[in-house]
Amino acid sequence: xxxxxxxxKKLLERKAKREAKxxxxxxxxxxxxxxxxxxxDLDFLTNPEKK
Length: 51
Fold this sequence. Notes:
Largest sheet: none
Number of strands: 0
Distance between the termini: 59 Å
Strand content: under 5%
Shape: rod-shaped
Radius of gyration: 21 Å
Helix content: 40-55%
Number of helices: 2
Structural class: mainly alpha
């Protein structure tokens, strides 16, 4: 029991350290992702905020 508790504690510490190092996780489905079905054009590249 002691070994398992010690191991779990160590794993949690490593996880916390890794998260602190990497920063907050970002979602894969961000609102700024490009639509793969839409072609890129010059207007989109020059004025990305315009919809």
